[in-house]
Design goal:
8 strands, 9% helix
Length: 187
Amino acid sequence: MAKKFLVGLVLLLFPILIRAQAVAPVTQKRATIDVGGYFSFGQTDYGQNHAFGPGFFGDFDYRLGGGNFGVGVEGEARFLDFNTVGGLYEQNFLGGPRVTYHAWNHYIPYVKFLAGGSRFRYPSIIYAGGPVKIYDYTTFAYGGGLDIPINRKWSIRPVDFEYQHWTFPPTGLTPWVYSAGVSYRLF
Protein backbone atom coordinates (compact mmCIF):
# COMPACT_ATOMS: atom_id res chain seq x y z
CA MET A 1 0.00 0.00 0.00
CA ALA A 2 2.83 2.37 0.86
CA LYS A 3 4.48 1.73 -2.53
CA LYS A 4 1.25 2.60 -4.39
CA PHE A 5 0.86 5.76 -2.34
CA LEU A 6 4.49 6.77 -2.97
CA VAL A 7 4.21 6.11 -6.73
CA GLY A 8 0.95 8.09 -6.87
CA LEU A 9 2.50 10.97 -4.95
CA VAL A 10 5.55 11.02 -7.25
CA LEU A 11 3.34 11.01 -10.35
CA LEU A 12 1.23 13.80 -8.88
CA LEU A 13 4.17 15.97 -7.83
CA PHE A 14 6.54 15.17 -10.70
CA PRO A 15 5.23 17.94 -13.00
CA ILE A 16 5.59 20.44 -10.18
CA LEU A 17 9.12 19.29 -9.38
CA ILE A 18 10.31 19.71 -12.97
CA ARG A 19 8.39 22.99 -13.25
CA ALA A 20 6.19 21.72 -16.04
CA GLN A 21 3.43 24.17 -16.73
CA ALA A 22 1.21 25.42 -19.46
CA VAL A 23 2.85 28.17 -21.49
CA ALA A 24 1.62 30.59 -24.09
CA PRO A 25 1.73 29.25 -27.63
CA VAL A 26 5.02 29.82 -29.41
CA THR A 27 3.37 30.97 -32.62
CA GLN A 28 1.22 34.04 -32.92
CA LYS A 29 -2.29 34.09 -34.27
CA ARG A 30 -2.40 33.68 -38.02
CA ALA A 31 -5.50 35.81 -38.66
CA THR A 32 -6.26 39.24 -37.22
CA ILE A 33 -8.90 41.92 -37.70
CA ASP A 34 -8.14 45.56 -36.88
CA VAL A 35 -10.40 48.60 -37.03
CA GLY A 36 -9.27 52.17 -36.69
CA GLY A 37 -9.48 55.79 -37.57
CA TYR A 38 -7.15 58.40 -38.99
CA PHE A 39 -6.84 61.99 -40.02
CA SER A 40 -5.97 62.69 -43.66
CA PHE A 41 -4.24 65.43 -45.58
CA GLY A 42 -4.48 65.32 -49.35
CA GLN A 43 -3.63 67.07 -52.58
CA THR A 44 -6.88 66.87 -54.49
CA ASP A 45 -5.78 67.66 -58.07
CA TYR A 46 -8.83 69.91 -58.46
CA GLY A 47 -9.31 73.59 -57.61
CA GLN A 48 -7.80 74.25 -54.21
CA ASN A 49 -4.82 72.04 -53.73
CA HIS A 50 -5.31 70.70 -50.21
CA ALA A 51 -8.08 69.08 -48.21
CA PHE A 52 -8.28 67.69 -44.67
CA GLY A 53 -10.59 65.28 -42.91
CA PRO A 54 -11.23 62.11 -40.91
CA GLY A 55 -11.43 58.55 -42.09
CA PHE A 56 -12.07 55.01 -40.90
CA PHE A 57 -10.56 51.69 -41.93
CA GLY A 58 -10.74 47.97 -41.29
CA ASP A 59 -8.05 45.38 -42.02
CA PHE A 60 -8.11 41.61 -42.21
CA ASP A 61 -4.65 40.02 -42.23
CA TYR A 62 -3.72 36.33 -42.57
CA ARG A 63 -0.11 35.25 -42.06
CA LEU A 64 1.00 32.67 -44.57
CA GLY A 65 2.32 29.35 -43.24
CA GLY A 66 4.20 30.70 -40.25
CA GLY A 67 6.29 32.95 -42.47
CA ASN A 68 6.78 36.69 -42.46
CA PHE A 69 4.29 37.55 -45.20
CA GLY A 70 0.60 38.14 -44.71
CA VAL A 71 -2.23 38.67 -47.16
CA GLY A 72 -5.57 40.27 -46.50
CA VAL A 73 -8.02 42.97 -47.37
CA GLU A 74 -8.51 46.58 -46.35
CA GLY A 75 -11.61 48.74 -46.50
CA GLU A 76 -11.73 52.46 -45.88
CA ALA A 77 -13.97 55.50 -45.87
CA ARG A 78 -12.43 58.97 -46.03
CA PHE A 79 -14.11 62.40 -45.86
CA LEU A 80 -12.01 65.33 -47.10
CA ASP A 81 -13.16 68.95 -46.87
CA PHE A 82 -11.69 71.87 -48.81
CA ASN A 83 -12.67 74.39 -46.09
CA THR A 84 -14.59 76.57 -48.52
CA VAL A 85 -17.72 78.57 -47.84
CA GLY A 86 -19.58 76.71 -50.58
CA GLY A 87 -19.00 73.24 -49.11
CA LEU A 88 -16.69 71.65 -51.68
CA TYR A 89 -15.76 68.14 -50.48
CA GLU A 90 -14.76 64.66 -51.61
CA GLN A 91 -15.41 61.25 -50.10
CA ASN A 92 -13.72 57.90 -50.81
CA PHE A 93 -15.17 54.44 -50.20
CA LEU A 94 -12.50 51.93 -51.21
CA GLY A 95 -11.55 48.31 -50.56
CA GLY A 96 -9.12 45.73 -51.84
CA PRO A 97 -6.15 43.43 -51.22
CA ARG A 98 -3.07 44.20 -49.16
CA VAL A 99 0.20 42.43 -48.38
CA THR A 100 2.03 42.78 -45.04
CA TYR A 101 5.57 41.91 -43.97
CA HIS A 102 6.02 40.80 -40.33
CA ALA A 103 9.81 40.46 -40.18
CA TRP A 104 10.32 43.10 -37.50
CA ASN A 105 8.45 42.75 -34.22
CA HIS A 106 7.54 46.39 -33.85
CA TYR A 107 7.15 47.47 -37.48
CA ILE A 108 4.70 46.01 -39.99
CA PRO A 109 4.99 47.61 -43.45
CA TYR A 110 2.27 46.94 -46.02
CA VAL A 111 1.29 47.66 -49.61
CA LYS A 112 -2.27 47.79 -50.95
CA PHE A 113 -4.35 48.16 -54.08
CA LEU A 114 -7.88 49.50 -53.56
CA ALA A 115 -10.85 50.15 -55.82
CA GLY A 116 -14.29 51.59 -55.24
CA GLY A 117 -16.17 54.83 -55.52
CA SER A 118 -15.56 58.46 -54.72
CA ARG A 119 -18.03 61.29 -54.39
CA PHE A 120 -17.32 64.91 -55.27
CA ARG A 121 -19.62 67.78 -54.25
CA TYR A 122 -19.56 70.93 -56.34
CA PRO A 123 -21.06 73.89 -54.47
CA SER A 124 -23.49 76.27 -56.08
CA ILE A 125 -20.90 79.09 -56.11
CA ILE A 126 -19.00 77.28 -58.89
CA TYR A 127 -22.12 77.14 -61.06
CA ALA A 128 -23.15 80.76 -60.46
CA GLY A 129 -26.44 80.23 -58.70
CA GLY A 130 -27.05 76.75 -60.04
CA PRO A 131 -27.94 73.78 -57.85
CA VAL A 132 -25.39 71.84 -55.86
CA LYS A 133 -23.87 69.08 -57.98
CA ILE A 134 -22.80 65.74 -56.52
CA TYR A 135 -21.03 63.26 -58.79
CA ASP A 136 -19.80 59.72 -58.20
CA TYR A 137 -16.64 58.38 -59.84
CA THR A 138 -14.94 55.01 -60.01
CA THR A 139 -11.64 55.22 -58.16
CA PHE A 140 -8.47 53.11 -58.07
CA ALA A 141 -5.76 53.63 -55.47
CA TYR A 142 -2.45 52.06 -54.64
CA GLY A 143 -0.13 52.79 -51.80
CA GLY A 144 1.33 51.55 -48.57
CA GLY A 145 2.12 52.35 -45.02
CA LEU A 146 3.41 51.20 -41.67
CA ASP A 147 1.72 49.84 -38.56
CA ILE A 148 3.53 49.92 -35.20
CA PRO A 149 1.98 47.71 -32.48
CA ILE A 150 2.23 49.34 -29.05
CA ASN A 151 0.65 46.39 -27.19
CA ARG A 152 -1.45 43.32 -28.02
CA LYS A 153 -4.55 45.37 -28.91
CA TRP A 154 -3.47 48.85 -30.05
CA SER A 155 -1.36 49.95 -33.00
CA ILE A 156 -0.22 53.30 -34.33
CA ARG A 157 -0.37 53.96 -38.06
CA PRO A 158 2.10 56.85 -38.49
CA VAL A 159 1.99 56.76 -42.27
CA ASP A 160 -0.51 55.59 -44.85
CA PHE A 161 -0.01 56.96 -48.35
CA GLU A 162 -2.28 56.50 -51.38
CA TYR A 163 -2.04 57.63 -54.96
CA GLN A 164 -5.53 57.62 -56.48
CA HIS A 165 -6.91 57.71 -60.01
CA TRP A 166 -10.50 58.92 -60.49
CA THR A 167 -12.39 58.35 -63.75
CA PHE A 168 -13.11 62.10 -63.88
CA PRO A 169 -13.80 63.23 -67.48
CA PRO A 170 -11.97 63.87 -69.71
CA THR A 171 -8.58 62.63 -68.42
CA GLY A 172 -9.22 61.79 -64.77
CA LEU A 173 -8.00 63.17 -61.49
CA THR A 174 -4.91 61.86 -59.71
CA PRO A 175 -4.95 63.02 -56.08
CA TRP A 176 -2.71 61.69 -53.34
CA VAL A 177 -3.61 61.33 -49.67
CA TYR A 178 -1.45 61.00 -46.54
CA SER A 179 -3.10 59.66 -43.36
CA ALA A 180 -2.03 58.92 -39.78
CA GLY A 181 -4.05 57.28 -37.01
CA VAL A 182 -4.58 54.39 -34.59
CA SER A 183 -6.17 50.95 -34.75
CA TYR A 184 -7.65 48.42 -32.32
CA ARG A 185 -7.34 44.65 -32.78
CA LEU A 186 -10.70 42.90 -32.49
CA PHE A 187 -9.06 39.44 -32.56
